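Sanity check

After download, print the first record. It should look like this:
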Amino acid sequence: MPDTPVSRRGVLFALGALPLVLAVGACSTSRPDRGAPVPTDFDNPRARALADRARAALAAHNPDTAIALARESLQAWPASTQTWGLLREAATAAGRDEDRRLATFFEGRIKDYEAMHPLQARLAFLGAARQPPAATPSIGPWAERLAGYFAWKDARSGKQTGPLR
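Expected structure tokens:
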């Protein structure tokens, strides 16, 4: 078989396309199951009221009550960076390192992921739920809740773009 010269441009194109091929392959293998219902129990007014009570409890030097109320608020509206920050402050005041790390993790991620398309954010949180970081192994249920929130947000946009979880 004769040697065929390979152009430099051809090699650069192939190397440039490799990340795209790998990314598409990774997305196609990590899709969530189709047909699972999207949660609809998100309640921003309730979450705000609970967060206000959590702030008052923290101001009254009752960080354990503040933690419980902040967690309840986050169940109602998990994408509130302010409430994750409140949970972080309360956990710090109570000396609860696991809760502090958990709150710090989600506070930062939500700030980043709110700028993404909801489908991308949902998939990112599903990945975090399935493979939690070693420093915060307890993120699974919260990451699942946030994945549900972003699926709900995607469905409400009227331009649903992906399979439901």
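If your output differs, re-run the checksum step. Summary of this record's structure: Confidence is low (pLDDT under 50) at residues 11-15, 17-35.
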